[in-house]
Amino acid sequence: MTTIQARRQLIVILLLCVAAVAAVIRHYAERGSTVHNVSTVMMLLWLPVVGSIVGWFYARLQRKPPAAPPSFAPGRAFEPQALVELTLRPASIPAEDGPVAIGEHRFVLVVGHQGFQSRWQVAPGEVVRRGQTHQLHVEFLTPQTALPQLPQGTPFRMLVGDAFTGDGRVLQVLAPAA
Q1: What is the 3-state secondary structure (H, E, C) of 39-94?
Q2: Which residues does residue 159 pair with via DSSP β-bridges, in sequence order?
Q3: Which of 92, 93, 71 is CA-nearest to residue 140?
């Protein structure tokens, strides 16, 4: 729970407690007295809370689920667009320090403060090990955006999930930016 959520929850609890105490005071106060009238007004302090809850439910019903992030089409053939030199960082767990699995691997190629969704493949019979430099082909999700930013020799970092797992540089652009 964030600090703002905790404060809002505390405010709701305090307003409901004030309303409950006001209801008890109003019940025992003489009708028409100042105490009776003030406690009636104090009981109304919880009404904005009800309005906020109704508004939250209404917004929740109206809100559409977020759109899925763009991704490579399932089953789409791998089309290399750049040749890169990549060095995967050693694994932090010795059990994971074996060769990289055969198949497609997705990552974000980070240059400065920009990132480009990319993928590369390990072909059957090919061995890619961590800590060693390899020349690999890369395909970009949006080559028209990525390739102009990646001239030959551009250094980059490889982001997988929330961790940087490799470093490299662009050796050659194979496909022109459309």
Answers
A1: HHHHHHHHHHHHHHHHHHHHHHHHCCCCCCCCCCCCCCCCCCCEEEEEEECCCCCH
A2: 108, 164
A3: 71
pTM: 0.60
pLDDT digits (tens, 9 = 90+) for 73-102: 887 888 899 999 999 998 878 877 788 888
| Chain centre distance of CA 40 | 47
- Is there a contact between 42 and 17 (Cβ–Cβ < 8 Å)? no
Question: What DSSP assignment string belongs to 113-134?
Answer: TEEEEEEEEE-TT----TTSEE
Euclidean distance between CA atoms 171 and 85, whole angstroms:
6
Helix 3-28 with 34-43: angle, nearest 10 deg: 150
